[in-house]
């Protein structure tokens, strides 16, 4: 029931507040493809949030043109427009006087959905973000942890199944571990839902992890570089971007380091003729979401999510493994492979047999360590 | 009269926040609330009837009692709302309980105590206009005379003077709050 | 003992006076709530407007009630009109101030989210902002009610309704046997009603505040 994803075009969008000499956003143009995640990243005060808020017209552009799926956003009624755009923000912005269920059902209610349909939708949404509907529907926001509140915030944004999702540092206020989990969940949601997502953050690591493309923004929302994460990591457009990325030097070292130089992660593995329910039990027991399916010669074949596991054979569910690295691959290659694979890439030996996996967190940790060594040395 | 109020209200409030007297605080606060709900005119008249004497002091005493309440309450609330970590920090660097009280708790409670004083002054001015009912004199006399004799100019002069006095007192109270409060909190 | 005989003998008229007293105060509070919340909503977005509204209503509150009642006699005469006007004016400040403070105290992220998911201004105000500011507004009404109990007693001077009449008749019969009784019954009556209404506020607060924002 997902709507067709739509593209977003911003043409020469400018925001100038009266009484200020400099525009907050100056002549911003960008083309965002349907179904992609674009991350705006930049220092605070650079205008990235302002730019995003002009898409749903929480801030009215002073001039320029914005189209969403070909429709002129500026000629629509702003409230109607916003009901068709999901919106998730830092600290979730849940209505404290309404229950979790009422919060999620708010937009469907505004759109005039019949009550039973809204109720069903609320349950679906809670399950989608990994919260038990029976347990959480009637709770109030303050009875939830920060991470759970963010999940509800995302559920509320997705409730009316909008083709576009705007996210303003939605995971900014939770602890790093929860944050990592929420990011993983967003990615797996996106692999099903294919929304067009504009995501604002000041955390470059988050941008690399989530973005199909990253826009590094400077003052007045000027686009310093707009490209895929790997391209920006490999070749920062200028010193400012390099500074923001964190270390040209450490990235160069990334090409010098090999997979064998770092400690590999362990993926949860399953053999292709294993019974799905056994795999499910194992994943549940270890509290993991993905299993790597190996063939009879222990070669990685498919990634399956715990939700993919039904009674169908393992060889037919999930998605195929497209990219592999060996112990000899550079970390640069590994990073690229991770970015196409989504989170993890399997490491194989000479006969193609599974040895381990490398995750984005491990690579980012390595980059961070290199950066620290670089800074101190 | 203000002096009486401060001299009684603040120490009483302080005592009620000390550990050994804390149990009494809710009762006193409840009593203060009931007292606040009591109509000033009723208290005044009752005091007058009960003592069956008239004059200035018969009016002043109930007014003083009446305006004691805001000061008392704000002292208690003011000291209670001081961040406990500050008290702990004070004890931690080796201050005695009494110097914690003098150098941390009281200074931080001063704004609220002053606000209570301001409230009680305004209340006192308002109650003072009622003093003439018990032959205590005051601006109420002008208002009453003006009304009884249908001389509205006299009534208006009395009322406007009472208003002006109240506003003046409130303004002075505001100034006092500004200049006597601890600087860091301003 | 004389007091008790007095109370039982005049039971009916006492109840009537109490009822009138309470009803005048409650009606004035409700009217002031409508005006005060309206005023609060009108000014809360502008710091200057809020400051002016608060200063103005607090100036009214500073005026001695007896002076205000006196001033209203030439304009409105005696009886119910000056009483109600004075009561409503006095009730405004706590309600206006708490409305403004309550509305400004709302987490901006909540309002941002409400706008962001497509609620219009009116809906944000009625569905989110006022609902969240409600406990503060109710607290303001509670303070106003307590305040009005005393003012209403003085209003008997302008022939207003209520228990103040007992106090004043006690005063006018100074020296007679039941002068003290009259004043005492009037005063205690006001206190009792004040406490009862306060209890009602606690109850109303429980019933009308969402569990999600209750302390």
Question: Can you characterise this structure?
Answer:
- The complex is a heterotrimer of chains A (377), B (186) and C (215).
- Chain A is α/β, with parallel strands linked by helices.
- In chain A, 37% of the residues lie in helices and 22% in strands.
- Chain A is built from 15 helices and 17 strands.
- Chain A has a six-stranded mixed β-sheet, sandwiched between helices. A four-stranded antiparallel β-sheet of chain A has the order 2-1-4-5, with helices on one face.
- The longest helix of chain A has 18 residues, at 176-193.
- Chain A is globular, with a radius of gyration of 22 Å.
- The model of chain A has no long low-confidence stretch (mean pLDDT 85).
- Chain C is elongated.
- The termini of chain C are far apart.
- The interface between B and C is large, with 41 and 36 residues.
Query: How large is the radius of gyration of chain B?
Result: 20 Å
Count all strands of chain B and give the number.
0
Low-confidence stretches of chain A: none
Number of contiguous helices of chain A: 15
Radius of gyration from the alpha-carbon trace of chain A, in angstroms: 22 Å
Helix content of chain A: 25-40%
What is the distance, rounded to the nearest whole angstrom, between the alpha carbons of the first and last residues of chain A? 55 Å
Segments of chain B where pLDDT lies below 50 for 5+ residues? Answer: none
Shape of chain A: globular
- From the helix content, strand content and strand pairing of chain A, which structural class follows? alpha/beta
- Share of helix of chain B, binned: over 70%
Helix-and-strand structural type of chain B: mainly alpha
- Report the β-strand fraction of chain B as a percent range: under 5%
Query: Oligomerization state of this entry?
Result: heterotrimer
What's the story with the biggest beta sheet of chain A?
Answer: 6 strands, mixed
Greatest interface and its participating residue counts: B-C, 41 and 36 residues
Strand content of chain A: 15-25%
- Tell me how many strands of chain A there are: 17
Number of helices of chain B: 8
